[in-house]
Specification:
Rossmann fold, globular, 5 strands, alpha/beta, 2 domains, 37% helix
């Protein structure tokens, strides 16, 4: 049950990607006020690199700010890929159920355990790592007891500026966060998943198979239209010394 408070409790929502990592580092380095809590909502389906970044940030927060690692995605299972496997469906582009069920809702439930169930005033201020190049995502939530704050916009930081800051202050590469079975991934990402983490690629293949079997879904995980089996190659361009730029589709609705 929450305590009585005059000011909203502040929560930094960490996704483990470029922007939210830079925001947390800014706080830890004394360049921005420290939040009351740092919250990472674990989908159970994040990329291994994301888990490594979040674990390191968790260690850096010890003794400085409470760090909450939530595993509370859905009443059926906290792991996103298991949820879809059990239902025989797939995450679909344009439908934000992934973000709602496995990111936003778990954080709201946790926030309520801190601030209580009061209404009529702002109880929570959520700090989100939205950078200047994605201002369109800076909106306010429907819940009247919470509001969003965008510190990176206040600091006029772009994604590239966040990336440079991470490189200078964090001895670890930070990539865009996202689930290994995300339909927003482009061809190279699926190919790399197959080579680097074949077990995760096969889980994604199984998701497609279950969806086809149980719901006769005719699309796939590749932009919700095609099967990812086409990326189960024996070789990639890298094997022939060729390199291409690695950027995620900017239209993705992933959580920071």
């Amino acid at each position: 049950m929450g305590e009585s408070m005059s000011e909203p409790v502040t929560f930094l929502s960490l996704g483990g990607g470029v922007q939210s990592t830079a925001l947390l580092l800014k706080c830890l380095n004394g360049e921005y006020p420290m939040p009351d809590h740092v919250v990472f909502s674990d989908t159970g389906s994040e990329m291994p690199e994301t888990y490594a970044v979040v674990k390191k940030l968790q260690d850096m927060c010890e003794g400085k700010v409470p760090f909450e690692w939530l595993k509370d995605g859905n009443k059926e299972t906290w792991k996103l890929h298991e949820y879809y496997l059990s239902r025989g469906t797939l995450p679909v582009i344009g439908i934000r159920s992934c973000t709602s069920k496995f990111k936003i809702d778990p954080i709201k439930r946790f926030q309520r355990t801190i601030v209580g169930m009061g209404r009529g005033k702002i109880l929570v201020e959520s700090w989100l790592g939205i950078s200047t190049d994605e201002r369109r995502r800076a909106t306010q939530p429907e819940a009247k007891w919470t509001r969003n704050k965008y510190p990176l916009l206040e600091m006029n930081m772009s994604r590239d500026a966040c990336k440079r800051y991470n490189e200078e202050h964090f001895n670890m590469k930070v990539d865009k966060s996202g689930c290994f079975c995300c339909p927003y991934q482009h061809a190279r990402q699926w190919t790399e998943l197959n080579f680097k983490y074949p077990e995760l690629f096969q889980i994604s293949v199984a998701m497609e198979a279950e969806a086809k079997l149980k719901s006769a879904f005719r699309g796939g995980l590749y932009y919700s239209k095609e099967s990812i089996l086409q990326f189960q190659h024996s070789h990639t361009l890298l094997d022939f010394g060729m390199e291409i730029e690695n950027k995620c589709d900017p239209s993705g609705g992933c959580f920071l």
